[in-house]
Task: inverse folding
């Protein structure tokens, strides 16, 4: 396929069976004009490559009870897909099952009241099987004609076979139990999907817009363009990404970043679609189109993640391709070998073979991994962690080494004034006022840190005149009629006599040994102050490293390009002992590769751009994304959206629980079916037992996966 190949994405309502999803994918691939098709079972979507009529796609889905809706079309029922409640998801199936159950009850009653007339009871059982099993037979017989052996095919053969050998009551009961199983499985699968699809409910459909003439009007969010002005009232959801023009308010960003506490927004602050405005009115200038907001990209990333299958799922899928034909061969052998060679009765052997077909349905096995992965990825997304595929869920559970970049990862990523050492008779506030006034027009990060420090103290800045820049050294200017220098200590003090400059330079060296950058302020006649500036450690870093140790992570390390003194100070505050400083990108890459060669599973945590080689070489690349960080979303395997490390222990706990659930599910699916198949050899397996084993396995693995939604700590 080329880049010009037509590609269309459709949401698929009614897709609850992994086997049926694969069957639907094959049907679509066979349509004229379709070059390829990929079903995303977890997100209930299908991507079709090539040109084919939508009516043809609808027809292919109608047979399996599926409904296709273009991805960007409005969903019915207020945006909610079929399956949001048990009743809505199985309305037709419920009616058929109830009718079937009533007919079975009538058959049982006939058996008691007219025991000498089995024909009447069998006729009622036959009607019950036909009514309750109509959707099943419709699919199963069509598959049988083309020799496609999947769940519906096996069940159809088993039920018809039971009727042929005269077991009408059991055939009808199996149909009823299967219908109930399908309905419950459908509801459980939709619950798992809701952890993802509920993100879509956060998107407002309309917005209040202020026009160029100052008047306000309501417009569809889809029609907004960058540069429009939107009014967000207290208690309303922010309709689109933008920048606050006016107003102050606390905004709940839990849907985007996982932060439970409101974040204060003021002019210049970024806001994101789907977040909830608090007590103040905000006027926002839009910066993105509706289909490109942070929320929209999160939804697409999370849904696309379902297509990246976990290793466990790949293994199960490969096994399932051989499993169903194997069950058919085993059932055939069980039906014919005992009567031909061991003198067994034909009816008993055929009955056992039919029970094997029922218990052999691979649905529980096939669904065991994807339902857990869907649930985990959805839960992670709602907690501000984007996982881009099932493979990364499993990989995060196996980590033994975690390497951190320093700047912007363990630290806030911006310099702050940490020390003010006054050297004369001026106090801290006056010294900071002079320094900030001189740096107020500077674009240098250190100058910005001084201005921010003065602003935080609400200090008024005096007029400054005659600013002259000495590139690479600092600034000199006149403040309140007096001349000053600010910049590198040696340069700022060079006009002072040695006996005045020497103690100042020694004090500056002490601050530098603590990993701080030192800015000196001096007048023409005396030293005024030294400012220690450094990138501060995130409040969450030390606690995160401590929790990682408690989770059994064998090794944490810092890989940074900064100089050793600064790196050691930051590492000590974060609780990291392995510090590798002054590294080039290729040296970070080499460190990651060396750990992997030693057999460790490695995660690299960085900003997603500067650390790209190391992120790519690690088993998992994790980015501290901050809401709306395009680079982080594009480059990393996992993104911590809140701009904080606090979600890292949550990610590892969730991944480990998910891996445990997957292993439990596979064990349950194999165990129940193996036990039932063993019962079939001596002829002890009944059709009722078979359907309970199959239904039980499917429901247990689904409900077991849904346990992942229950714990807040992962």
Result:
């Amino acid at each position: 396929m080329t880049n010009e190949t037509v590609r269309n994405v459709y949401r698929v309502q009614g897709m609850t069976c992994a086997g049926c999803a694969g069957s639907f994918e094959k049907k679509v691939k066979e349509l004229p004009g379709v070059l390829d098709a990929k079903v995303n079972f977890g997100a209930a979507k299908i991507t079709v490559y090539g040109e084919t009529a939508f009516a043809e796609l609808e027809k292919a889905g109608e047979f399996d009870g599926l409904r296709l809706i273009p991805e960007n079309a409005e969903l019915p029922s207020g945006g909610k897909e079929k399956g949001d409640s048990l009743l809505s998801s199985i309305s037709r199936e419920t009616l058929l099952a109830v009718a079937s159950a009533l007919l079975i009850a009538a058959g049982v009653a006939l058996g008691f009241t007219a025991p000498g007339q089995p024909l009447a009871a069998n006729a009622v059982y036959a009607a019950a099987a036909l009514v309750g099993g109509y959707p099943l037979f419709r699919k199963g017989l069509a598959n049988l004609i083309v020799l496609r052996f999947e769940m519906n095919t096996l069940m159809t053969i088993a039920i018809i076979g039971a009727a042929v050998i005269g077991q009408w009551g059991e055939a009808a009961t199996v149909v009823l139990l299967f219908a109930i199983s399908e309905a419950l499985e459908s509801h459980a699968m939709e619950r798992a999907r809701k952890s993802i699809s509920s993100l879509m409910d956060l998107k407002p459909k309309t917005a209040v817009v202020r026009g160029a003439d100052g008047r306000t009007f309501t417009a569809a969010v889809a029609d907004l363009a960058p540069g429009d002005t939107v009014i967000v009232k207290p208690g309303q959801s922010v309709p689109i990404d933008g920048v606050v023009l006016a107003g102050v308010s606390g905004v709940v960003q839990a849907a985007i970043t996982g932060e439970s506490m409101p974040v204060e927004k003021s002019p210049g602050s970024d806001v994101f679609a789907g977040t909830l405005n608090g007590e103040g009115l905000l006027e926002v200038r839009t910066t993105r189109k509706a289909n490109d907001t942070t929320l929209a990209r999160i939804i697409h990333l999370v849904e696309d993640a379902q297509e990246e299958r976990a290793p466990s799922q790949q293994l199960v899928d490969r096994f399932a391709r051989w499993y169903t034909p194997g069950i058919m061969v085993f059932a055939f052998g069980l039906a014919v070998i005992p009567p031909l060679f061991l003198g067994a009765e034909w009816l008993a052997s055929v009955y056992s073979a039919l029970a094997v077909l029922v218990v052999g349905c691979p649905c529980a096995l096939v669904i065991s991994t994807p339902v857990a992965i869907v649930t985990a990825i959805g839960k992670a997304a709602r907690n501000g962690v984007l996982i881009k595929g099932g493979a990364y869920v499993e990989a995060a559970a196996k980590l033994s080494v975690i390497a951190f970049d320093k700047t912007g990862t363990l630290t806030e990523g911006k310099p702050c004034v940490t020390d003010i050492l006054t050297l004369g008779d001026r106090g801290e506030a006056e010294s900071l006022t002079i320094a900030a006034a001189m740096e107020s027009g500077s674009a240098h990060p250190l100058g910005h840190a001084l201005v921010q420090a003065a602003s935080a103290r609400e200090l008024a800045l005096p007029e400054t005149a005659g600013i002259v820049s000495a590139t690479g050294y600092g600034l000199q200017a006149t403040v309140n009629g007096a001349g000053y220098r600010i910049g590198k200590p040696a340069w700022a003090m060079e006009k002072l006599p040695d006996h005045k400059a020497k103690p100042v330079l020694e004090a500056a060296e002490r601050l530098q040994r603590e990993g701080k950058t030192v800015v000196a302020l001096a007048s023409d006649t005396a030293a005024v102050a030294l400012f220690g500036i450094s990138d501060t450690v995130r409040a969450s870093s030390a606690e995160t490293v401590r929790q990682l140790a408690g989770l059994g992570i064998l090794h944490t390390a810092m890989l940074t390009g900064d100089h050793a003194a600064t790196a050691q100070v930051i590492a000590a505050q974060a609780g990291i002992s392995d510090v590798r400083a002054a590294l080039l990108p290729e040296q970070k890459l080499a460190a990651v590769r060396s750990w992997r060669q030693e057999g460790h599973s490695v995660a690299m945590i960085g900003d997603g751009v500067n650390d790209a080689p190391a992120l790519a070489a690690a088993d998992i690349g994790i980015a501290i994304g901050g809401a709306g960080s395009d680079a982080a979303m594009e480059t990393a395997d996992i993104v911590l959206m809140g701009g904080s490390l606090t979600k890292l222990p949550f990610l590892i706990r969730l991944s480990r629980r998910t891996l445990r659930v997957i292993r439990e599910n596979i064990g349950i699916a194999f165990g129940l079916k193996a036990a039932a198949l063993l019962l079939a050899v001596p002829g002890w397996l009944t059709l009722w037992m078979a359907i309970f084993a199959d239904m039980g396995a499917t429901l247990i693995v689904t409900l077991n996966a849904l346990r992942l939604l229950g714990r807040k700590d992962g």
About this structure: DSSP finds 28 helices and 26 strands in the chain. The domain at 373-411+538-656 is CATH 3.40.50.1000 (Rossmann fold).
